[in-house]
Design goal:
The protein is of the alpha/beta class and 304 residues long. It is built from eleven helices and 13 strands. It has helices at residues 12-27, 32-38, 60-70, 99-129, 148-157, 175-181, 184-194, 208-216, 229-242, 259-263, 274-277; strands at residues 43-51, 55-56, 75-78, 85-86, 91-98, 136-138, 171-173, 201-205, 221-225, 247-251, 269-271, 284-288, 302-303. The protein starts with 11 loop residues before the first helix and ends with a strand. It comes from Limnospira maxima CS-328.
């Protein structure tokens, strides 16, 4: 079973503006329910999160940060780590702090953790299917607007690697670029004149003829897009004979049922959007501790 070794969460200086925006979207002019219950009283509460389905946890630090942006006195103690597989009913973190922060932050924090854990769980299924092979699974730019950094982090947690984060990471000449330039050779020549060192050039190909052209034009990475297994085998043999340093990526219509067959033909990478675009959320619930029952009973909730 694969566990992540290099999943790196972006720094808070990058994530905090988005987290604050999502909190503002949810809270709006104020939490009518919580404000109506607490009536300005500063009460102390506890809660725990539990998994309602088995899966791979991801985004627990992000969830903790959501609560802490609402109150720096709120303490979050995970009982598992990102990348751990959890069972249904398992407690995954404990919370203690101002009750208003617990109630106001609940939905945003849960939404993020459930989304990211779903991506990590789906990714782990694909990674496990080829775990004994040298082929590396990578993601794509098909991400939810606003969530790219976090969804790609969840892919890492699931055991895969990130493809380019955005358009400035690397050159990827796709079908429309080829049409716009008037051919693969022209596209590569034009881009090489202006691209900074040490970016690489990847070319998306759909036919053997395009593969030949990309090889001869000096592509660093060649993507075999929506090809049959037989066609990919022919392309791989030709590329390896010409230059063994050229990296080969397979893409298009990759599923759990087909990924192993594609990996076995010897590609370096398999890219798929399915781990993000087709992943269901992993259901997680938050429950207040028994000491939080009865807001009007001071013996059950401590005053801050």
């Amino acid at each position: 079973m694969i566990k992540p070794k290099s999943a790196i969460l972006p720094p808070w200086i990058v994530l905090d503006p988005q987290l604050k925006q999502w909190l503002t979207e949810d809270i709006g002019r104020g939490d009518r329910t919580t404000d109506g219950l607490l009536r300005g009283e500063s009460l102390w509460g506890t809660a725990h999160w539990s998994a309602k389905a088995p899966g791979i946890m991801a985004g627990l630090a992000v969830a903790a940060r959501v609560f802490q942006l609402l109150s720096d006195r709120l303490e979050v103690t995970p009982t598992v780590k990102d990348g751990d597989r959890c069972d249904r009913g398992q407690v995954i973190l404990q919370l203690e702090g101002p009750l208003d922060a617990l109630l106001m932050g609940e939905r945003v924090a849960l939404n993020l953790a459930m989304r990211l854990s779903g991506v990590a769980t789906s990714t782990r299924e694909y990674v496990d299917a080829i775990a004994d092979l040298p082929t590396q699974l990578v993601d794509t730019r098909k991400t939810t607007p606003g969530l790219r950094l976090l969804e790609k982090y969840a892919v890492q947690v699931g055991g895969a690697k990130n493809h380019r984060m955005g358009l400035d990471d690397a050159v990827l000449i796709k079908d429309n670029h080829i049409l716009a330039a008037g051919g693969i050779e022209k596209a590569i020549a034009l881009i090489r004149e202006t691209m900074p060192y040490p970016l690489t050039i990847e070319v998306e190909t759909e036919t053997i003829e395009q593969v030949k052209t990309a090889v001869n034009a000096g592509a660093d990475i060649i993507m075999l897009d929506n090809m049959s297994v037989a066609m990919m085998q022919e392309a791989i043999e030709m590329i390896r004979q010409y230059n063994s340093r050229i990296k080969i990526e397979a893409s298009g219509n990759i599923t759990l049922q087909t990924i192993r067959q594609v990996a076995e033909i010897g590609v370096d990478y398999i890219s798929t959007s399915a781990t993000i675009t087709r992943s269901p959320w992993l259901d997680i619930s938050m429950n207040l501790g028994p000491g939080n029952l009865g807001i009007n009973d001071p013996s059950k909730i401590r005053m801050i």
